[in-house]
């Protein structure tokens, strides 16, 4: 692995919105069926693998890959590379470590970025779990992390408050270019602090 870039993420004001950011619905035909398929199969595939769970993971990964080919990666991915490189955190676990804070930031914006409400309904849960509630989605997501034996906080993988500024500086702006969250460096630092 090559070390992550040391380029500073641009501020929101200096970035040109790419074409795909202005068309956030394009990856949905693949992403919409991929997310619930993966999130439903992930726990069983990790804890008690069956051919069906493995098939659903492979199918979901294929669909998700097709969606990412259109949409590119988003903030949790951009932040994950330093975690994988410096702390040997597997990529999926590294992405998951900041996902909750990114979703919370999306919901805190006066005008939530496109797709925010859809993302909150994706993590599977019982019907009474209030599927459209952001808090319920965050709880279901953390429950899934725990069920898979994944770390749930950055401190669980050895990241300290002293590491956070350097992690922000190392984010590759190209990995953020298509995220409708459009985070600034200050946003990235807040995401990491919330995830510690």
Explained architecture:
By secondary structure, the protein is an all-alpha fold. The protein contains eight helices and no strands. It has helices at residues 28-47, 51-71, 75-87, 91-108, 116-120, 134-147, 164-169, 185-195. Helix 1 (28-47) packs antiparallel against helix 2, helix 4 packs antiparallel against helix 6 and helix 4 crosses helix 8 (185-195). Mean pLDDT is 81; it is low at 1-22 and 127-131.
Q: Please identify the structural class as seen in this structure.
A: mainly alpha
Number of helices: 8
Ranges where pLDDT stays below 50 over 5 or more residues in a row are 1-22, 127-131
Q: What value does the average pLDDT take?
A: 81
């Amino acid at each position: 692995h090559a070390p992550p870039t040391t380029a500073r993420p641009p501020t929101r004001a200096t970035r040109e919105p790419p074409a795909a950011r202005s068309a956030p619905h394009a990856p949905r035909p693949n992403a919409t069926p991929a997310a619930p398929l993966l999130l439903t199969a992930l726990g069983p595939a990790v804890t008690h693998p069956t051919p069906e769970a493995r098939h659903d993971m492979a199918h979901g990964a294929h669909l998700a890959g097709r969606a990412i080919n259109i949409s590119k990666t988003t903030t949790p991915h951009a932040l994950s590379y330093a975690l994988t490189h410096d702390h040997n955190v597997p990529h999926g676990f590294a992405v998951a470590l900041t996902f909750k804070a990114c979703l919370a930031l999306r919901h805190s914006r006066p005008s939530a970025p496109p797709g925010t409400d859809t993302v909150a309904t994706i993590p599977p849960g019982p019907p009474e779990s209030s599927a459209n509630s952001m808090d319920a989605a965050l709880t279901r997501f953390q429950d899934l992390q725990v069920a898979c034996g994944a770390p749930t906080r950055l401190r669980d993988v050895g990241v300290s408050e002293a590491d956070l500024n350097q992690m922000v500086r190392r984010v590759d702006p190209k990995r953020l270019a298509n995220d409708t969250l459009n985070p600034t460096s200050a946003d990235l630092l807040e995401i990491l602090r919330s995830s510690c």
